[in-house]
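Complex record, two chains
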Amino acid sequence: MKKKWSFLTIIFTIVIMLTGCEPLLVLDPKGPQAERQASDIMLSIGIMSVIVLVVFVILIIMLVKYRASKQREDYEPPHIEGNIWVEVICVGIPVLIVAYLSFVSVQSNNIVESAPKGYEDKEPLIVYASTSNWKWHFSYPEENIETVNYLYIPTDRALEFKLYSYGPITSFWIPQLGGQKYAMADMLTTLHLAADAPGEYMGRNASFSGKGFAENTFNVTAIPQAEFDEWVEEVKESAEPLTEEKFVELLKPSIVGQSTFTGTHLEFLPPPKKHNKHTNRASNSEHSEHNKY
Amino acid sequence: MDYFDRFAVPHPSPAIYASMVAIGLTVIAIFAGLTYFKKWGYLWREWLTTVDHKRIGIMYLISALLMLFRGGADAIMMRAQLAAPENTLLDAQHYNEIFTTHGIVMIIFMAMPFIMAFMNFVVPLQIGARDVAFPRLNALSFWLFFMGAMLLNISFVVGGSPDAGWTSYFPLASNEFSESVGTNYYMFALQISGLGTLMTGINMITTILKMRAPGMTLMKMPMFTWSSLVANIIIVFAFPVLTVALLMGTMDRLFATNFFTTANGGMDMLWANFFWVWGHPEVYILILPAFGIYSEIISTFSRRNLYGYKSMVGSMVIISLLSFLVWTHHFFTMGQGALTNSIFSITTMAIAVPTGVKIFNWLFTLWKGKIVITTPMLYSLLFIPIFTIGGVTGVMLGMSAADYQYHNTMFLVAHFHMVIIPGVVFGMLAGLHYYWPKMFGFKLNDKIGKVEAWVISMSTLLAFMPMFFSGLDGQARRMYTYSESTGFGIYNMISMVGAVGLAIGFCLIVYNVYYSTRYASRDVGSDPWNARTLEWATHSPVPEYNFAMTPQVNSLEPFWDAKKRGHELFTGYYEKIHMPNNSGVPFILGCIFFAWGFSFIFGMWIPAIVTTIGIFACMAYRSFENDHGRYISVNEIQKTETSRGA
């Protein structure tokens, strides 16, 4: 165990060194989901490095020992069919490794697909995140506000993102808080995240969606709950209401800056009804004709 | 003039005009050259109408090399655009078109014909056959592939290239979001060449199952033949899925159906599922024949039999089965839940086991051998470590929870290049150097060859290793630009250096071909590598009938036995040989298919109907044609054999 960890530390150090001491975003997690994913990544890098090392060592030994130049002129290599025990080892060890990784993988799947642990005392914050070419709309139904291309979130509280798209498939991704998930036009997907530390994080659409894809990013600001409440109040006082005309205008393909509204588009243009797992509050609407389920 | 507007490139640039001029000049030069040297007849008789598997193999090879440079040019442009932050060499639309065509060209029109080249050239020789089972169908396969490739390649000068990624996910690829005819090109180019591939699949399976030399049981087949058999079985099961998916996509784009749209009950992810149900097995279609070539080469140059033959065969069969059970790992992030992801995560990682068995078997083939390092062997030895790095990152990607962080990033791009380049491209280049003397009667220069191998393999590492880091740092794939504050600049700059290195390496191959054609010795004999399997038992270059007498097989390595243990490969006397006649129909049918695809792409219905009739007319003609082939007389065989020093 100790060896494994010291090995992981070495690998981690090498990774950090190679990147000029600035940790890579994915390996610098700021939330429980991203932490689990980063530890899976480090674990698999560790185990895989051992395999790579074994292959390299065997290859080098073979090449050093059995070069024609190292052997007698009349050396005639023997006919070797293969050995059952060698085969058993070559199959057995990889099977054990894959079994172990499968075990970890199944566990992690259940962790990242359910609400993050440790915040049960508070209700999760629900945010509807939708894309249109090439922008992000964030609707806070409980707070009754909506933002474009930026996201404010409270720290130390579970976040539940409901994802969908007004157009091509996109993928909602905040590397430091956790992995991505698709946003699609005909169904609603759910992504569970949480932020442990206040800070500014990069968020983007990770799935290619046409000309404005590179610019399809958003800023994430994580702040303590009290400050978050203040921000909500401030928005309610200062922002203008989101009208249907305004929202339809926003849906047209364009690259725009950040903006803030009171009210959400969920009222007049509800998200798709079909969802993958969790319940959602979408009411029946004209969207139900968009899918036959 | 409105009618002709549709053929205009929607988003022209100086580079595109330059390519138009270049294409025009090349075509004129080819036509002028053929006329000046009076080679039209030669071209028609010896190449365009040929049904000889060796010539078809060589035509596949030439196409693959041409497409390698076409796809490589795309790659260089992409890397140049990304080499510096906020670069303005290409705009978003051009970048999108370029990475799309890079993917399509490299997979469908470079890697596929490359493996087809070796399957065509080598398999009949390895099993001691005179040709494939259906020689004329084989010619049709080639011409369909070739016309599909040409169709895609004219897209960027006529009407615009596809721009929705090589995966062409709907709804991005629908008329609503991809307005040019680009994606129509994608649908028809892949459809036409895909039909050709499916025919090859049927042809090769029949050839391998029915035409082996007497004594060659299934478990005495050389490893490359085994790998081709398995790959072609995958083709026959996987390609129909692509055919149907492309048909549905075409219907959506041309006839306003709603299979993959977001409205009226369409399901956008259905395309993704179809695409990868074909697309993942496709990866193994490409890599298994390369594994076969490595097996031949490593065994030859270790001067030893292949270690663990049975487990090699078994692992390929298991890989072929598993390849159909993992497609969902291409979209773990679709939101299908923990259970589905867990199942596909396990099947994905399970593929590492049979693949690992193959790696260890190659390593043990070196054991107690007498290793001679030639160019093909060097490629194979460089393949093992680099492929291992690429392969283990595949296991990492298979951990579905962690994949939420890798998906759609440069980490993924690094992974699949680090398996496909050493896996497929090195394998094909190794095969190119290995089989070159059998094809053309002289060896490629070994010194230049080794420089190539080192330059290409080190450049591969340089180009793709940094992407693992930039991916983990949050660089999504397919971004045409990024800001300086992201810090991706350094990784992309290193990648650019690697890309230039790769370009140099590939140019060295061309130089090697030129140099060796001029200076290499023509006196290499039929067995220049001291090899072990049947293809080396006939002359180089191979006479059209392959073997004057059918070889007798008693073991896995009949030619080695003939050399070392006095096994009699050829017994009996010359008999007249039945051979198929050349035919112009496959070529003509290919041309009609080209026109057919072109008409549909631009929605020109009258030509579309005419060409459809033309296709059926060609098939009807073939059905009523009375062609029983021809015989090569004993006299002629004797003459050929004597002139080649038998």
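Note: The first strand of chain B starts at residue 577 and ends at 579.
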